[in-house]
Amino acid sequence: MQTKRLTLLAMYTAIALTIFVVEAQIPLPIPVPGVKLGLANVITLMALLFLGRREAGIILAVRITLGSFFVGGLSPWLFSAAGGFFAFLTMALALRFVPKEQIWAVSTLGALAHNAGQLGMAVLYMGTTAVLAFAPVLVISAVITGAFIGIIARFLLRYERWLTP
Fold it and tell me: Cα 130–147–79 angle (5° rounding)?
């Protein structure tokens, strides 16, 4: 791997992890488990666009693993991993069909997939479908936060020459 590419990979990972840890400290006004801004997903989107699927997957896996170690534990890791995996697959697939100028749509699909993955893990982990009662709130929050994250990512596209190898 080229030195510049490896450096960018480390930089993206450090930024994503920092955002994840800081965001975990911010209390949200909605008392529904799983609702959060997901600001670190901006980094996942940028990595998918500029570094590739393999590198973006590595960044995501490291962020989820270390982030859960720093702010959670095993059960938060399970939920983050399930949501992150579904979001990553969805965004990687969507980027094949959606132009990067409409990254907000890719981000929104990723947020919806993330919440679906977390709800699926919650059903498995808790052994009940009662947690699906949170689905409507999670869908609404995913659309709002996903679009917001996508708008931030769209803004960052202006700085593509600094974000690419």
Answer: 35
Which residues of the chain have a pLDDT value below 70?
1, 162-163, 165
Contact 83, 122 (CB under 8 A): no
Whole-angstrom distance, CA of residue 60 vs CA of residue 143 = 21
Quote the pLDDT of residue 33.
74
H or E, element range at 16: helix 3-24
Q: Which amino acid is at 107?
A: S
Amino acid at 124: L
Cα–Cα distance for residue pair 103/126, rounded to 1 Å: 34
| Residue 145 buriedness (CB in 10 A; 0-12 / 13-18 / 19+) | buried
- 47 vs 69: CA distance, rounded Å: 22
pLDDT one-digit tens code per residue, 31-79: 777 778 889 999 999 999 988 999 999 999 999 999 888 887 788 899 8
Amino acid in position 24: A
